[in-house]
Amino acid sequence: MALAQYSVPPFSGKDYNKKSTRCKDDETPCAICGKGVKEPWPYTAAVIRGGGAWGDENSDQNDPGWMGLWPIGKDCHKKYVIR
Q1: Is residue 10 in a domain?
Q2: Closest Cα partner for 55 from 12, 1, 2, 3?
Q3: Are the beta carbons of 42 and 27 closer than 8 angstroms?
Q4: Is residue 33 included in any domain, yes or no?
Q5: HEC readout, the chain
Q6: Does pTM top 0.90 for this prediction?
Q7: According to the model, what pLDDT value does residue 14 have?
Q8: Is the peptide bond before 40 cis (omega within 30 degrees of 0)?
Q9: 76 vs 60: CA distance, rounded Å
């Protein structure tokens, strides 16, 4: 699976915390804006360095800063993906 890179840091969207608490039970917060994303996720990103950076396919999942795979919503992907 190819993991995209984004031009903004993870969890940096305006009101991320507020939006992420509004997610429904069947949603996971977008790793940029916090809005709920239902499965299947349109885009997926790896979050590393304890939330400080985006990872890639080679990121070490055993690293203590590995935060896992997170969904990226369609709008955030369109706005922030690095092509």
Answers
A1: no
A2: 3
A3: no
A4: yes
A5: CCCCCECCCCCCCCCHHHHHCCCCCCEEECCCCCCEEECCCCEEEEEEHHHCEECCCCCCCCCCCCCEEEEECHHHHHHHECC
A6: yes
A7: 94
A8: yes
A9: 25
